[in-house]
Amino acid sequence: MAADQTEAVTPEDALGRRVACSEHRATVRFVGAVPPTAGVWLGVEWDEPARGKHDGLHQGVRYFTCRHPTGGSFVRPSKASFGTDFLSAVRREYEAADEDEEISISGRTLEWADVRERSLESLPSVLLRNCQVNGPGEDGQILTSTPNVRWLDLSGSLLCCWEDVVAIARQLEHLEALQLSFNRLRLPSDPAAQRQAFCNLKVLTLIGCELTWTQILQCAPMWPRLEELIVEDNDITQVHRPEGVLQELKCLNVSKNRLDQDSLLNLAALPRLEHLIMTETGLSNIHFPDTVPGAETSMFASLEKLNLSQNNISEWGVIDELSKLASLRHLWCRGNPLASSDRNPRTANQMLIAKLPHLRVLNGSDVHPQERKGAECDYLKMFGEEWLQARGRSQLSQEFANRHPRYSSLIHKYGAPEEGELTKRQPFALKNQLLKITFVFVDDVARTPVEKKLPATMEVQKVKGLLSRLLKVPAADLKLSYTSAKVVGPEYHMDSDLKTLLFYAVEDGDTVLVRRS
Question: Count of CB atoms within 10 A of residue 409's CB?
Fold first, then answer.
């Protein structure tokens, strides 16, 4: 602990309040003296546990408790900011706002230029991310000052409970989208009583709030018309069935949560769910037990878009299960150890298309009719020899049908493969595995991008070795990610040095971004 004894006013209700120390946020767990030092200390639990030194136990005395062993510290009140009210933050941020400033929430963008009258009353959106908002301020002032706000970002604020959010939201009668990421909010005592405050809310973002799924369901009665919920990077493991809540939900993002995959089917209780995003959840298996291979499941009847990228899916039986989803049209499946026998990512994509009859978009790229026909015909030939061997022997034939539930329908569509047209698959030639990759050096914009042809089986550590010699920096200092030539926007991180370019689904024409760590 520092010996700084600078006097500062500590609010009477400081215990449990949220504070900011520089750019770092914490919750006050203790206020008082800490002998042998003089003066008042705040015992805080950091949002980032690595910042702390202990869990509230100091020199044998228990002052407070933390979730993490290193989550706590003592700071002087002079080093902590308790924040400001909503309208003070709005005036500070917007009265001198740049007229070209863009406002964006959940993919929707507005500009000041679109606002006819440059006044707080005309504001359609308010972005107060990391602006230390601690509450609504004087009652009724928000309603008269910013009555037309539809999109609101209070991420990284100093709000300490849902009642604080309610006190702001109930004065914003048109509020449709709300971002509350990176907050620590105490649960409301009576969520159903707060429904009116969020009666028009359709989009809610709660990234990095340390919430469990049970806590989300406890809060859900507040959001009767919610259509999109983003709860990425929380403490969600077990997913319980939503009973009587979230029934209007169309899009759910549970990425970066270590999910118990046996409980995922409980999400089928969301009748209108169209888009499910489950990247980086550790998912390796999915099974719909209500139907046999090749049939359609009654579960997830509305699901059109599914993102399973960056998971642990390695078995093609998982894709056969996905074929049971009658409404599935868009699938993202990059970054999974799912491979064809020839280890060629294009063959794997063909198998995905052939196994999923209704798929229209794969990894962001349209599946054109000719591409589908080619994939399905190749699939027939690919496993035609196995099918010929399985014919006429019922037990083996049923086993084949279970592993290839679409094969019979493809035969009906194109006819049975002839024995003469079947050829044994040869190992994919190395020259055909070479990927043309453009390396862009993010930290050195003056350096010209470099184009290389590398084998798809090359490990990330060897790619770093190549770049290390080029840049004359240690390979350990390099961080790599890539963007797809086919999909604009997403950046995929290559975190494991022992994985190959093939594992990360890097394709010909992709761009690898090189950074110094």
Answer: 12
Residue 258 lies in a domain: no
Distance between CA atoms of 443 and 461, rounded to whole angstroms? 20
Distance CA 472, CA 465 (A): 10
> What domain range is 512 assigned to?
430-516
CA atoms within 13 A on the CB side of 55: 5
Phi and psi of 513, rounded to 5°?
-95, 125
What 8-state DSSP symbol labels residue 37? S
Of the candidates 362, 341, 49, the one whose C-alpha atom is nearest the C-alpha of residue 184 is 49
Q: Give the CATH number of the domain where residue 62 resides.
A: 2.30.30.190
In a domain, 324, yes or no: no
Cβ neighbours, 10 Å, residue 370: 8
The pLDDT-based confidence of 409 (bands split at 50, 70, 90) is: very high
* 276 beta partners: 252, 306
CATH number for 460? 3.10.20.90
Q: With a threshold of 0.85, does the pTM exceed it?
A: no
Closest CA to 132 of 20, 31, 220, 216: 20
Is 437 a member of any domain? Answer: yes
Is the same domain home to 408 and 459? no
Q: Is residue 364, in this structure, part of any structural domain at all?
A: no
Give the model confidence (pLDDT) of 33-88 as tens digits: 999 999 999 999 999 999 999 999 999 999 999 999 999 999 999 999 999 999 99
Tokens standing for residue 468: 């290390």
